[in-house]
Amino acid sequence: MTEGLSRRRVGTPRDTTDETDTLQSLSSTPGTPVFNRTHSAEEIKTDKQPLLTLMEETLLLGLKDQEGYLSFWNDSLSYVLRGCMLMELAFRRRIRITKDAFTGMTNISERPIEVISTRPTGEVLLDEALRVIKGSETRRTVASWMDLLSGETWNIAKAGYQLKQVRERLAKGLVDKGILRTEKRNFLFFDMATHPVQDPRAKDEVITRVFDTLNLPRTAATPTRGASRIGSSPGSMTDFTRYTIGQGIGGQTGKLKLAPITNPRFYKGEEHNRFALLRRVSLIAAACAGSVLENPMIHMDMETRDRAVTRAEDLMDVYGHWPFKRDSPLFTTEIDSGEPGDLMVEELIASVIYVLRKMDKLI
């Protein structure tokens, strides 16, 4: 498992020519924060990312633990995963929303994306998406890139922008990390490769972070994974089907708080990541839009699930708007540093969450 993690994180050598050209072009734009070689320490600090990407976290939430496949009826997850790629590239400071003279009057969803660094991320899918965006002669908005990367276009000339087999490639990446395993499963007339959960700790930690953000007690996450992992008898399963959670302190309107996971394996030092809370909000937005948010809450009563989904939608409303809705009780200053270098990350995250909120109109 350790070797798998190491292999996935070893990046290719820097393309210093492309990065130098990009930085020089940025320096000529008024008001643009420049990331040159004298500030490389800042970039290294923000590149200390979790072992799991947003795409992998969202996929894990939708994956059936023992069966090893996603719901056949989920037609929105693929589109959401492309949005996760853009958010992940923003967290790694590879792309941003374009600055121009009309920034104050132009809605953030209508402003195009630009590449600010071509340095490889060490994640194959992210690097592929970065090359596609960099290679385009036309600058496009977040919604346009999500359409093109997912193949949501009738223009044959733009079919080359599509990233193919994203779900399968993400699953194989999780196999390399020792989290999933590969099995063959027969579905009547054909065989299909499935990827059951091998190491449940990864999904446990993802669900814990989801529950923290939704103001649900961590103890409620235990039945979700415990029944299938321990191999409980059919009789004991009924203990988990009526798990009722009260409104609790804060309820739907409680402010976000970052509570580190106890003895984490995949999120060590999460509290030191400056975008830790914003990452959790991004995961909630992706899970909600991708129709996988309720999967870890299946053992709870309907009222509790409705409150959790309502909180998720409220979070998307607060952080899917630029600037963030500071007057909302859900807003916390811990998520918004106000520093120029961080604002460009927050802008793009807000733009993607805005698109995820409008998915019913896009798909």
UniProtKB/TrEMBL annotation:
The keyword Coiled coil is annotated on this UniProt entry: no
Classification via Pfam families: GPP34 (PF05719)
Annotated spans, Disordered: 1-36
InterPro entries according to UniProt: GPP34-like (IPR008628), GPP34-like_sf (IPR038261)
Domain of life: Eukaryota
Record keywords, A-Z: Golgi apparatus, Lipid-binding, Membrane
GO biological process: Golgi organization; Golgi to plasma membrane protein transport; Golgi vesicle budding; retrograde vesicle-mediated transport, Golgi to endoplasmic reticulum
Chief site of localization: Golgi
GO molecular function, one term: phosphatidylinositol-4-phosphate binding
Regions of compositional bias (Polar residues) in chain numbering: 22-36
Topology with respect to the bilayer: Peripheral membrane protein
Compartments where located: Golgi apparatus membrane
Family designation: Belongs to the GOLPH3/VPS74 family.
Protein name: Golgi phospho protein 3
Organism of provenance: Coemansia reversa (strain ATCC 12441 / NRRL 1564)
